[in-house]
Fold this sequence. Notes:
Structural class: alpha+beta
Shape: elongated
Helix content: 55-70%
Largest sheet: 5 strands, antiparallel
Distance between the termini: 35 Å
Number of helices: 23
Amino acid sequence: xATFLYRLGRLAFxxxxxxxxxxxxxxxxxxVGAASAPPAGNSSFSIPGTEAQKAFDLLEQRFPGMSAxxxxxxxxxxxxxGEKMTDKLNKAAVEKTVRQLKxxxxxxxxxxxxxxxxxxxxxxxxxxxxxxxxxxxxxxxSSRDAxxxxxxxxxxxxxxxxxGGDALTAAPETGSSEVIGIGIAAVVLVITFGxxxxxGLPLLTAIIGVGxxxxxxxxxxxxxxxxxxxxTLATMIGLAVGIDYALFIVSRYRAELAEGxxxxxxxxxxxxxxxxxxxxxxxxVVIALVGLSVVDIPMLTKMGVAAAGTxxxxxxxxLTMIPALLGxxxxxxxxxxxxxxxxxxxxxxxxxxxxxxxxxxxxxVVRRPVAVLLLGVIGLGAAAVPAASLELGLPxxxxxxxxxxxRRAYDLLxxxxxxxxxxxxxxxxxxxxxxxxxxxFAEVGKEIKGLKDVVAVTPATPNKAGDTAIITVVxxxxxxxxxxxxxxxxxxxxxxxxxxxxxxKLLVTGATxxxxxxxxxxxxxxxxxxxxxxxxAFLLLIVVFRSVLVPLKAALGFLLxxxxxxxAVVAVFQWGxxxxxxxxxxxxPVMSMMPIFMVGVVFGLAMDYEVFLVTRMREAYVHxxxxxxxxxxxxxxxxxxxxxxxxxxxxxxxxxxxxxxxxVKMIGFGLAIAVFFDAFVVRMAIVPAVLALLGRRxxxxxxxxxxxxxxxxxxxxxxxxxxxxxREDEREPVRV
Length: 736
């Protein structure tokens, strides 16, 4: 592989005009496609195979036009102090609002608070329920705007009005976060390279790669039902890895220049060595992202595949466009150690033998491996302790900041009707096979009323055929509580008895039940997903490092960093530690998607640092250095760049912590802290300590396996051999 990539790098350097033209053409083509593609709303959300989804599908058949999984909104009214919602003027304002809500283009129905008994006992609070044709993720912005305008009209009449429900669900805006991440990345790159031009190359190629990827996603969004969250993940991951991959190749190019090689040769060797690491690091990320399809949640699968495509583009750009741009830059990109005139006064490179910070740190670890290993493992273990108290759930309006209308509506409903009123359960009774469906409906209502934690059960509402009915159950506890989850399971457990007595089937659905089913699906998929991703990456790393213990150590170190990161997420978002600093206004269960999402993304990124750092050590060992010295050599060449890459990654993810959306905030914090733990504790401390303790055993590989595995030559040994042969050929006399 190294030889092939070496030739590719030299070709891209020589044919830079052609390479640059191809990438500009692809960016233009993707941009035109995105601009001309039909606009796509947010992706539809379905969880095939879950009981909640089966109930929604059944309702679509038996209650045509009902839009069972359509978005809902609750417009909550509160009378001024000393007044009631039944007062004449207040009632007139509410009825006017209800009439206006019915005119919405996507509105199916609006329930009048007075006709539906939706007024609190003390008369101070009332609400109107609005039902839409499409889900909250598919609802048009014009419908949301109309809902907000109508609510404002009631406020102008003197009422306190807040709006809750999934109808206000919208994709979070992250543009400012991306700018912050890019800005910090630019500063880190300038400090790392000491040159504005060298620092600009990774930024330019990363932006082009993300531009192509996101434009392609936008162009295909309507045809493939891709939502805005898909491009958000692709942007987050593509930007981070795009900068990192280009950073490693530019850094290796400057190192080759410092050894006295010509620029074209240096570009070829940089792509042949660092580029090999980029290919395998990119493969681990792609495996982790595509592996999300194991969860069998279509939206998550699409997000993973789209992000994986953006990573693949980042790899191709790093292998081809970076050497092409280096050809354009010429002598303006200095050898390693030299500074540009603008930033360093043209300071020459330091002596090659002089130890840098990375080699000094590695020497310290090699001398005291046991102490460093114990300190790192104990520190991560302590950080992971809160993970034992991990509670999973999906956020509802109660997790929103108190400044939002959704949260204030949630609080008003809790005040007027009880906490469980924010998460009613929809029980669907299928009596098609029952001889007496009406009796079955009554039996279900009676059984549910006798369950613990039930506040109210509405009478059954049958369809026109009379073979299916809907029963609404109001829990006592809030939607995201353990008690409500237990109630859902208790109702479902009654299904077997009901079917035995009446031949009617019972299904529980609604937003709360759907959230519970999604959480269960994610929990069940975590271990198979972890086994698949880690197993495939383990095999890949065996090929890369030609070792069994090094990949094993890499996988165990990753598990340590992920557990520590989950512990930090629990401490901040569930326990409330440092919540003020993170602007976490409401603690609660950790998002169900967080563990599996963190495993997928962080594993791929963690293997980046493992590949980039340890391949340098492997390269030194293969070329004759002792194991302990190879560790120091790997750090001398790679520690500065890996540190810069990790800081950039942390900066990109940390930019999302400022989001007002609790889900995006949690993802940003979780990924940032996971990269911090993995890069600076696992890869920078635990890895060299373990390798120092193992010595030559670290690179052991059974002979039979050595014969079976393909030789991908990530270390570039083939390049060294071919160079030596070339020099011998030059010394031989030419025979005519």
